[in-house]
Design brief:
CATH topology of the largest domain: formyl-coa transferase, domain 3
Distance between the termini: 37 Å
Number of domains: 3
CATH class of the largest domain: Alpha Beta
Number of strands: 5
CATH architecture of the largest domain: 2-Layer Sandwich
Shape: elongated
Order of helices and strands: HHHEEHHHHEHHEEHH
Structural class: alpha+beta
């Protein structure tokens, strides 16, 4: 939209901005689509939300919950096997490179899964976090809403409503300008009718009464 506005200012002509949910979903296929279009890669469903090419990079079940652990760089793999108590895997030829780990995933992943089940999620997140291995808890909805980052970002707001009282809801993730947005209830039907018709559209009282009498605004 901003591109269209700048172009209109530059060229003196407007344009259509076309964006569909379908196109957005197709666009989010990103590199698996590129691989498929340019090689013999065929995307398949992955186990435990695993990355399509990087191993390990997926959800793992711990002793009490699920976490995500990812090794998108070689250094993370080396750190992982060290803190997981399996330093010998760093020198195992079956897992020496990204391609090797992907090729031998059926052997490697059960080994990692067994180790992750030996400790709780909190223990693993502490161990992996201190080692600098990318990791994260898999939150439930209540856990996500109570996450410290959710609170720090002010993502939950209270809105007063004449019928429902105080309604708690999520704020918009879009933030523009220095002023924080004020969250208020949606207007009642026709609540701002006089303001919109008179101040914005410039209709006089006779014109508004005419429209009202003709049923243009529906029935009460």
């Amino acid at each position: 939209m901003l591109g269209g506005i700048h172009a209109a200012r530059r060229d003196g002509a407007g344009m259509d901005c076309d964006l569909s949910l379908f196109d957005t979903a197709i666009g989010m296929l990103t590199y698996p689509a590129t691989w498929h279009l340019n090689s013999d890669f065929v995307p398949t469903r992955t186990h435990h939300s695993a990355h399509p090419s990087l191993v390990p990079f997926q959800a793992f079940e711990t002793g009490d919950a699920w976490i995500v652990v990812g090794c998108p760089k070689e250094k993370f793999w080396l750190r992982l096997v060290d803190v997981a108590g399996m330093p010998e895997l760093a020198h195992d030829s079956r897992f020496a490179t990204f391609a090797d780990r992907r090729r031998n995933a059926a052997t490697l992943l059960p080994m990692l899964e067994a180790v992750f089940r030996s400790r709780t999620a909190a223990e693993w997140l502490d161990i992996l976090g201190r080692a600098g291995v990318p990791c994260s808890p898999i939150n439930t909805v209540p856990e996500a809403l109570a996450d410290p980052q959710t609170i720090a970002r002010g993502m939950i707001v209270d809105t007063e409503h004449p019928r429902f009282g105080t309604v708690r809801q999520l704020r918009s993730p879009v933030r523009v300008g220095p002023e924080a947005s004020e969250y208020v209830r949606a207007p009642h039907r026709g609540e701002h009718q006089e303001e919109v018709l008179g101040d914005v559209l410039g209709y006089d009282r006779e014109r508004i009464a005419e429209l009202r009498d003709s049923g243009a605004f529906g029935t009460a």
